[in-house]
Write a structure and sequence with these properties.
Radius of gyration: 29 Å
Number of strands: 23
Strand content: 5-15%
CATH topology of the largest domain: Rossmann fold
Largest sheet: 7 strands, parallel
CATH architecture of the largest domain: 3-Layer(aba) Sandwich
Number of helices: 26
Number of domains: 4
CATH class of the largest domain: Alpha Beta
Strand order of the largest sheet: 11-10-9-13-15-16-17
Structural class: alpha/beta
Helix content: 40-55%
Distance between the termini: 33 Å
């Protein structure tokens, strides 16, 4: 049984006694609380990781922001904090502001009135945004405070302050000193003068002193309050109680993916994951058997309630406002979840370890213009603009919960660092095509081959950022060449109207037909801004050269002059010039195939199994990735 706080009153004490009767152990969240509950043992809480706190302003006269995050009530010391801010403002007018973040929904009327009375004299200095995400809070404050006048059973905000490395002042009450240790300042509870003095000292730290204090706070969090530290405590407790998992039991691995509604590179990666872990269930928000690869029909698929709505299965973009709450309600029982994520699967919940294989942080949130394309309607742009702020907060919270991040390309690793403020390990995905498998001629292009003309190939979803429209324009200026486009998407009708007779578009083809298309082609055209771009490796498996945009994942996968050529702009002139260059060069098919082999599925599976084993090793501190 876990008691979050000390039982108060007859009713709470009676319920606690009844619950304890059959309990193997009574757990409390701190050493301090263990002294208050006879017979209890501490199982200290832990928190999610957080981005680094706001750096100290370089402007000497910039206002210093003092922060409070939590329930604004007298027992949390808000009236004491208000008095401290008044003292600071009297000493240095205009130099101090208070960020009071939190909601008073569970504060009774008398206590609300007391808080408002205390805040009234400094109302012009107070910003009250309501409840905000902890990462946003620590990005805005110079000094965080937890001035509680009651005995805090743990002190979540204090532990989160350590994770963010924020300068911290707490009251000497309850478990707060136990949480902070030497990584913050501790003042007597209810003493506004001492609180003001400590806040001023914390805000005045020179940059080098502040950086050292931040590092000390982060290290204390890592050792004591990180998810990794928490897991070790739980594992030790379960072993001690004789109820831990059996050492003979194989770990349960599950796979998560955003949605299985299309045939793309990310879905091929999920198939490779499922072959590496054939017993793993696949959890996803939406599953459309007709829209994605048929191999998924042989797998155990778990879906969200959204899957009952056919319109959402057929077009996942319609579900955008619903996917964050749906993802947050997906709970997976497994020792390790491998989340294949481009925006949602990293937000699925689990009590096990979370290994995120990131294809990219959500394009619609961080590369919206590229994702929508030039032709996007004003209504779409406005709708995304309204949804984006809340979705970004959800996305970053979800990313912080993961134990480890793997990036599928160099550009994605850089994007993860920029967007999520955390490290990731570069792990390339495998190409998803077996060059030894059956080939079946594709009726839509067989006549070109029979006539000895052949064709160039594009394999892509038909989205604005894929730039297929510019490839069509390029081939309009190359009447002697042929282009076969394999793919489907919202631009299909527009592209059909745009194409000339030397361009054909097909969709829904089998893998055998796709193998034939690769084998029969002159080479692949890859004009999109890809985070990795599996199709260039699929072409390489057939010894076919590639003309690829000099951007993103293609910098990792296309070797200039060896496996293909790059072009600098995804426009018709650039693509046209690259096609002519491919035609004019002689490429060594064996060297191209050897390059593709370095991205084999066997290597990918071995890597995944190693990562899972590493996560399950108890001595690792994988939850703290910086």
């Amino acid at each position: 049984m876990h008691l979050h706080q000390e039982p108060r009153g007859r009713a709470q004490r009676a319920l606690a006694r009844a619950a304890r009767a059959g309990a193997l152990a009574v757990l409390v969240p701190s050493e301090w609380m263990a002294t208050r509950v006879p017979g209890a043992r501490p199982l200290v809480n832990w928190t999610a990781d957080l981005p680094a706190a706001k750096p100290r302003s370089a402007e000497a006269d910039a206002p210093r922001v003092v922060g409070f995050l939590g329930r604004p009530s007298p027992d949390k010391g808000v009236d004491v904090l208000a008095a401290a801010i008044a003292r600071l403002d009297a000493a240095e007018p205009g130099r101090w502001r208070l960020l009071l973040a939190g909601e008073p929904r569970f504060v009774d009327a008398a206590d609300r009135a007391r808080v408002e009375e205390a805040l009234a004299p400094i109302a012009h200095l107070v910003d009250r945004p309501g409840w905000i995400d902890p990462a946003d809070y620590f990005a805005r404050v110079d000094v965080a405070t937890v001035p509680s006048v009651w005995g805090e059973p743990f002190g979540l905000v204090a532990a989160e302050s350590l994770a963010a490395g924020a300068p911290l002042v707490v009251a000497d009450n309850g478990a707060l000193p136990e949480i902070v240790g030497d990584a913050g300042r501790i003042v007597p509870p209810g003493d506004a003068a001492a609180l003001a003095e400590a806040v001023a000292a914390a805000a005045a730290q020179p940059g080098d002193v502040r950086a050292a204090a931040q590092q000390r706070a982060r290290e204390r969090w890592r050792q004591r309050f990180s998810p990794a530290a928490g897991r070790e405590r739980v594992a030790a407790l379960l072993d001690e109680l004789g109820i831990g998992p059996s050492a003979d039991r194989a770990p349960v691995v599950a796979i998560a993916h955003d949605y299985l509604t299309q045939r793309g590179g990310a879905e091929r990666v999920v198939l490779a994951m499922s072959r590496a872990f054939p017993e793993a269930r696949i959890h996803t928000t939406l599953y459309d058997p007709e829209g994605t690869f048929p191999e998924f029909a042989q797998r155990d698929i778990v879906v969200s309630p959204l899957n009952r709505i056919g319109a959402l299965r057929r077009d996942h973009r319609r579900a955008l406002p619903l996917l964050a709450p749906a993802s947050g309600r997906m709970r997976i029982e497994a020792d390790v979840v491998i989340a294949s994520s481009s925006g949602w699967a990293h937000g699925f919940r689990t009590d096990g370890r979370m290994l995120v294989y990131c294809h990219t942080p959500a394009r619609w949130l961080y590369l919206a213009d590229d994702y929508l394309g030039e032709s996007a309607s004003t209504a779409k742009r406005l709708a995304l603009g309204v949804l984006a702020p809340a979705l970004r907060r959800w996305d970053r919270r979800a990313a912080r919960r993961a134990d480890r991040y793997l990036a599928n390309s160099t550009v994605v690793r850089e994007r993860i660092a920029r967007v999520y403020h955390r490290d990731s390990t570069l792990r390339f995905p495998p190409h998803g095509i077996d060059a030894t498998g059956e080939r079946r001629p594709l009726t839509a292009a067989a006549d070109w081959v029979d006539e000895g003309r052949g064709f160039f190939l594009i394999v892509s979803r038909l989205m604005p950022y894929k730039h297929v429209q510019h490839a069509i324009d390029a081939f309009a200026e190359l009447p002697g060449e042929r282009l076969l486009i394999v793919g489907d998407g919202p631009m299909r009708d527009e592209l059909e109207r745009r194409r000339g007779d030397n361009v054909r578009i097909v969709s829904g083809i089998s893998d055998a037909e796709l193998r034939w298309a690769y084998a029969a082609s002159h080479g692949l055209i890859a004009p999109s801004h890809e985070d990795f771009g599996l199709t260039v490796l699929e072409a390489a498996a057939w010894g076919k050269p590639v003309a690829a945009l000099r951007s993103g994942g293609y910098l990792d996968t296309v070797v200039e002059g060896v496996t293909g050529v790059h072009f600098d702009a995804p426009d018709a002139p650039g693509i046209r010039a690259a096609v002519l260059e491919l035609r004019s060069r002689a490429f060594d098919a064996d060297r191209i195939r050897a390059h593709a082999e370095t991205f084999s599925e066997a290597r990918f599976a071995e890597m995944l199994r190693s990562e899972v084993a590493d996560l399950l090793a108890p001595a690792r501190h994988s939850g703290d990735l910086g």
